[in-house]
Design brief:
By secondary structure, this protein is mostly helical. It has two domains: 90 residues, no CATH class; 43 residues, no CATH class. It contains eight helices and no strands. Helix 2 packs antiparallel against helix 4.
Length: 134
């Protein structure tokens, strides 16, 4: 679709179509599946790169790093980081800081406290219950 539109429309209009058709699908629920990592993230990032290359009309061997910068488009990983930061900023009252855990005057006292677990199953169960409570 993007390849055929490239011949008719300007790059600015194609960029707007990218944001309405593809970017909206990327952002939907990214807080839930964005941290999954692995093959899913790799496959989606490859699709995003393919769409960017077809928008500009370059070969599949060209690097997309500069294209993302020129088009002012965030990669999938950058979108996930932005969404997590926005979520934490919006719900900062539910985040526990290191200064709430201990009274030591350290340079990391204002960082978010991250609980350490020994098993992966316990990590997933605790993450789900914490998310459902907030």
């Amino acid at each position: 679709m993007m390849k055929s539109l490239k011949e008719i429309l300007s790059l600015n209009l194609i960029r707007n179509i990218y944001f309405t058709k593809f970017h909206s699908l990327l952002c939907y629920g990214i807080l839930f599946w964005g941290g999954a990592g692995g093959e899913l993230t790799t496959r989606i990032l490859r699709i995003q790169k393919r769409v960017i290359r077809s928008m500009v009309g370059v070969s599949s061997r060209k690097s997309c790093r500069q294209l993302f910068k020129e088009l002012n488009i965030l990669t999938l990983v950058s979108l996930y980081i932005l969404e997590v930061i926005c979520y934490i900023r919006k719900h900062h009252q539910y985040v526990e800081l290191n200064s709430n855990i201990h009274t030591y005057n350290t340079r990391r006292k204002m960082d978010i406290h991250i609980q350490v677990y020994s098993t992966d199953l316990f990590k997933r169960l605790n993450y789900i219950t914490n998310f459902l409570v907030t």
